[in-house]
Amino acid sequence: MKHTLQQVFRSGKFQLGFVIFTTIILTVIIYPMIITDPPLSIIGQGTFFPPGIYVSTYDAVNSPTTYTLNLRDAAAKRIANRLSKEDRLAMQEWLLADGVPASEIDINDTGKLLALWETKYDPKAKVEGMTFARQRYFQRVNASIQGIMSTEGFTLGVKNPESGVLEETGTINQSDFVNINQVPNVRFLVLGTDNFGRDVLTELISATRVSLMIGFIAGLIATLIGLTLGLLAGYIGGLVDDIIMFVTNLFTVIPSFVLLILISFSIGQEQRGAVTVAIVIGFTSWVWTARAVRAQVVSLRNRDHVNLSKLSGHSIVHIILTDILPYIASYVVMALILQISSGILAEASLSILGLGPKTTEVPTLGLMMNWAMIYQAHVQGSWWAYFPVLLTIALITFSMNLMNTGLDQVFNPALRD
Amino acid sequence: MKGYRKYFLNKLGWFLVTFVFAFILNFTLPRLMPGDPVAAIVSRLAQGMSNATGVQAIYQQYADLFGTNKPIIEQFFLYVRNVAQGNFGFSFSQYPRPVADVLASSIWWTVCLQFPAIIVGWLIGNTLGALAAYLRGGFDKVLMPISIFVSNLPQFGMAIILLVVFSITLKWFPVAGGYGFDLMPSFSWEFIWSVIKHYQLPFFSIVLIAIGGQAIGMRSMSIYELNADYVKYARFLGIKDRKIIGYVFRNVMLPQITGLALSLGTMIGGALVAEIVFSYPGLGYTLLNGISGQDYPLISASTMIVTVMVLVANFVIEILYGLIDPRIKAAQAD
Question: What predicted TM-score, i.e. pTM, was given to this entire model?
Answer without folding.
Answer: 0.84
